[in-house]
Design goal:
By secondary structure, the protein is an alpha+beta fold. It has five helices and four strands, in the order H-H-H-H-E-E-H-E-E. It has a four-stranded antiparallel beta sheet with strand order 1-2-4-3, with helices on one face. The longest helix is centred in the first third of the chain and has 59 residues.
Length: 167
Protein backbone atom coordinates (compact mmCIF):
# COMPACT_ATOMS: atom_id res chain seq x y z
CA UNK A 1 0.00 0.00 0.00
CA UNK A 2 2.86 2.37 0.76
CA UNK A 3 4.24 1.85 -2.74
CA UNK A 4 0.96 3.02 -4.20
CA UNK A 5 1.15 6.29 -2.19
CA UNK A 6 4.70 7.13 -3.28
CA UNK A 7 4.88 10.09 -5.67
CA UNK A 8 5.24 9.28 -9.33
CA UNK A 9 8.69 10.83 -9.61
CA UNK A 10 10.01 8.58 -6.85
CA UNK A 11 8.70 5.51 -8.63
CA UNK A 12 10.28 6.63 -11.88
CA UNK A 13 13.58 7.39 -10.13
CA UNK A 14 13.58 3.96 -8.46
CA UNK A 15 12.90 2.28 -11.81
CA UNK A 16 15.67 4.33 -13.45
CA UNK A 17 18.14 3.46 -10.66
CA UNK A 18 17.26 -0.24 -10.71
CA UNK A 19 17.82 -0.36 -14.48
CA UNK A 20 21.44 0.81 -14.05
CA UNK A 21 24.33 -1.57 -13.60
CA UNK A 22 26.43 -1.32 -10.41
CA UNK A 23 29.21 0.33 -12.41
CA UNK A 24 26.82 2.98 -13.82
CA UNK A 25 25.42 3.58 -10.33
CA UNK A 26 28.95 4.19 -9.02
CA UNK A 27 29.70 6.65 -11.83
CA UNK A 28 26.40 8.49 -11.23
CA UNK A 29 27.16 8.69 -7.47
CA UNK A 30 30.63 10.07 -8.22
CA UNK A 31 29.18 12.62 -10.67
CA UNK A 32 26.61 13.72 -8.06
CA UNK A 33 29.36 14.12 -5.44
CA UNK A 34 31.55 16.14 -7.85
CA UNK A 35 28.58 18.31 -8.81
CA UNK A 36 27.66 18.87 -5.14
CA UNK A 37 31.26 19.81 -4.31
CA UNK A 38 31.41 22.20 -7.28
CA UNK A 39 28.18 23.91 -6.19
CA UNK A 40 29.37 24.16 -2.58
CA UNK A 41 32.75 25.50 -3.72
CA UNK A 42 31.11 28.14 -5.90
CA UNK A 43 28.84 29.19 -3.04
CA UNK A 44 31.78 29.48 -0.65
CA UNK A 45 33.77 31.42 -3.25
CA UNK A 46 30.93 33.92 -3.73
CA UNK A 47 30.49 34.35 0.02
CA UNK A 48 34.21 35.00 0.51
CA UNK A 49 34.27 37.46 -2.40
CA UNK A 50 31.31 39.38 -0.93
CA UNK A 51 33.00 39.45 2.49
CA UNK A 52 36.24 40.85 1.03
CA UNK A 53 34.35 43.46 -1.03
CA UNK A 54 32.47 44.64 2.07
CA UNK A 55 35.68 44.82 4.07
CA UNK A 56 37.21 47.03 1.35
CA UNK A 57 34.17 49.34 1.50
CA UNK A 58 34.26 49.83 5.29
CA UNK A 59 36.85 52.67 5.32
CA UNK A 60 34.98 54.50 2.57
CA UNK A 61 31.68 54.12 4.41
CA UNK A 62 33.27 55.35 7.63
CA UNK A 63 34.60 58.44 5.82
CA UNK A 64 31.15 59.09 4.35
CA UNK A 65 29.58 58.77 7.80
CA UNK A 66 32.07 61.34 9.12
CA UNK A 67 31.23 63.69 6.25
CA UNK A 68 27.52 63.26 6.90
CA UNK A 69 28.00 64.09 10.58
CA UNK A 70 29.96 67.23 9.64
CA UNK A 71 27.27 68.24 7.14
CA UNK A 72 24.54 67.66 9.71
CA UNK A 73 26.38 69.87 12.20
CA UNK A 74 26.85 72.58 9.56
CA UNK A 75 23.17 72.30 8.62
CA UNK A 76 22.14 72.73 12.24
CA UNK A 77 24.34 75.82 12.43
CA UNK A 78 22.72 77.26 9.32
CA UNK A 79 19.24 76.52 10.62
CA UNK A 80 20.01 78.41 13.83
CA UNK A 81 21.29 81.47 11.93
CA UNK A 82 18.54 84.01 11.28
CA UNK A 83 18.02 84.83 7.61
CA UNK A 84 18.16 88.50 6.75
CA UNK A 85 15.22 89.70 4.67
CA UNK A 86 15.83 90.23 0.98
CA UNK A 87 15.63 93.82 -0.25
CA UNK A 88 13.15 93.54 -3.13
CA UNK A 89 14.19 96.74 -4.91
CA UNK A 90 17.89 95.84 -4.84
CA UNK A 91 17.11 92.32 -5.99
CA UNK A 92 15.09 93.59 -8.96
CA UNK A 93 17.85 95.93 -10.11
CA UNK A 94 20.54 93.26 -9.82
CA UNK A 95 18.44 90.71 -11.69
CA UNK A 96 17.64 93.22 -14.44
CA UNK A 97 21.35 93.84 -14.98
CA UNK A 98 22.08 90.11 -15.09
CA UNK A 99 19.31 89.33 -17.60
CA UNK A 100 21.67 90.30 -20.42
CA UNK A 101 23.59 87.10 -19.73
CA UNK A 102 20.60 85.10 -20.99
CA UNK A 103 20.38 86.88 -24.31
CA UNK A 104 17.88 89.28 -25.87
CA UNK A 105 15.05 86.77 -26.24
CA UNK A 106 14.26 86.48 -22.50
CA UNK A 107 11.55 88.63 -20.92
CA UNK A 108 11.31 89.10 -17.15
CA UNK A 109 8.15 89.97 -15.27
CA UNK A 110 7.91 90.70 -11.53
CA UNK A 111 4.65 89.67 -9.89
CA UNK A 112 3.13 91.65 -7.01
CA UNK A 113 4.03 88.91 -4.55
CA UNK A 114 7.75 89.22 -5.40
CA UNK A 115 7.87 86.30 -7.80
CA UNK A 116 10.03 86.63 -10.93
CA UNK A 117 8.84 84.98 -14.13
CA UNK A 118 11.19 84.47 -17.07
CA UNK A 119 9.89 83.58 -20.53
CA UNK A 120 11.72 83.25 -23.79
CA UNK A 121 14.40 81.32 -25.61
CA UNK A 122 17.99 80.85 -24.51
CA UNK A 123 20.66 78.18 -24.24
CA UNK A 124 20.18 75.58 -21.54
CA UNK A 125 23.74 75.76 -20.18
CA UNK A 126 23.63 79.56 -19.90
CA UNK A 127 20.24 79.48 -18.19
CA UNK A 128 21.44 76.87 -15.69
CA UNK A 129 24.57 78.93 -14.89
CA UNK A 130 22.44 82.08 -14.49
CA UNK A 131 19.95 80.28 -12.22
CA UNK A 132 22.75 78.89 -10.05
CA UNK A 133 24.43 82.31 -9.82
CA UNK A 134 21.31 84.23 -8.78
CA UNK A 135 20.49 81.51 -6.28
CA UNK A 136 23.95 81.57 -4.74
CA UNK A 137 24.45 85.33 -4.78
CA UNK A 138 20.93 86.64 -4.14
CA UNK A 139 19.00 83.67 -2.66
CA UNK A 140 16.58 83.69 -5.58
CA UNK A 141 15.38 80.10 -5.81
CA UNK A 142 13.81 78.36 -8.77
CA UNK A 143 10.20 77.57 -7.90
CA UNK A 144 9.00 75.99 -11.13
CA UNK A 145 10.15 75.70 -14.71
CA UNK A 146 9.15 74.31 -18.07
CA UNK A 147 11.78 73.74 -20.72
CA UNK A 148 10.67 72.81 -24.24
CA UNK A 149 12.30 72.49 -27.62
CA UNK A 150 15.58 71.02 -28.77
CA UNK A 151 18.85 72.16 -30.21
CA UNK A 152 21.00 75.10 -29.17
CA UNK A 153 18.16 77.31 -27.91
CA UNK A 154 15.20 76.18 -25.84
CA UNK A 155 11.94 77.79 -24.79
CA UNK A 156 12.03 78.42 -21.05
CA UNK A 157 9.27 79.44 -18.67
CA UNK A 158 10.65 79.72 -15.16
CA UNK A 159 9.34 81.11 -11.90
CA UNK A 160 11.66 82.26 -9.09
CA UNK A 161 10.99 83.38 -5.55
CA UNK A 162 13.28 85.12 -3.09
CA UNK A 163 14.34 82.88 -0.19
CA UNK A 164 12.43 83.54 3.00
CA UNK A 165 9.26 84.57 1.18
CA UNK A 166 6.20 82.37 1.66
CA UNK A 167 5.20 80.24 -1.33
Amino acid sequence: MKADLAPAWRRRAAIFWAARSPREQGILRLAAIVLGLAIAGQLLWQLEDARRRQLRQLPELAAQATQLAALAAAWQGLAATPVAPVDAAALRSVVQTRLGELGPDIAAHWEDDGRLTLRGSTGLAGWLRWTAAVHEEHRLRLESCRVTGSGATLQIEASYRAAGRPS
